[in-house]
Write a structure and sequence with these properties.
The chain is mainly alpha-helical and about 150 residues long. The protein has helices spanning about 1-30, 40-50, 50-55, 60-75, 100-115, 120-135, and strands at about 35-40, 80-85, 90-95. The chain is rod-shaped and about 85 Å long. The termini are far apart.
Length: about 150
């Protein structure tokens, strides 16, 4: 008689576990993974795709500085949040928000010119590739229709 209660109890526990796991999987299946931005990966990705004329004028450090300015601009306008550092790599989660591209370009070009950094054309090339990188990792998507 004890074996029957043990068997029924084990069966009930297994059914409850399968239902709980099934619900969790169903919920996670429709959720989007958060887009995590890795500065070092972004610098490498962008540097590999820059035109030769631009790579002749700017270094990896210049690309990294431009990207940091872009991330600072995202932070200033409220479309990103910092989530600490991992192994000295800056990571930023870009939340679903809309930002004007031209305003970012203007602000970063002005910052570069003020600091004696890369030329405007180089900054624009890096920022265009930055936007492609953000789209590639799923941090930004299609333009949202006006509501």
């Amino acid at each position: 008689m004890e074996w029957i209660f043990f068997g029924v109890g084990a069966f009930v526990v297994v059914v409850i576990a399968f239902v709980a796991v099934g619900q969790a999987v169903g919920r996670l299946e429709v959720e989007r993974n958060p887009a995590v931005y890795d500065l070092n990966d972004a610098v490498l990705w962008i540097a590999q795709r820059l035109p030769e004329e631009v790579t002749a004028r700017i270094s990896y450090d210049d690309v990294a500085q431009i990207l940091k300015w872009h991330l600072d601009w995202f932070q200033d306008v409220g479309v990103s949040s910092s989530h600490g550092q991992e192994l000295a790599t800056e990571r930023v989660r870009i939340d679903g928000a809309v930002a004007a591209e031209d305003a970012a370009i203007d602000a970063i070009v002005a910052r570069s010119m003020a600091s004696g950094g890369p030329e405007a054309v180089d900054v624009v090339c890096v920022l265009e590739l930055q936007n492609r990188y953000l789209a590639a990792i799923g941090a930004i998507g299609d333009e949202v229709a006006d509501l």
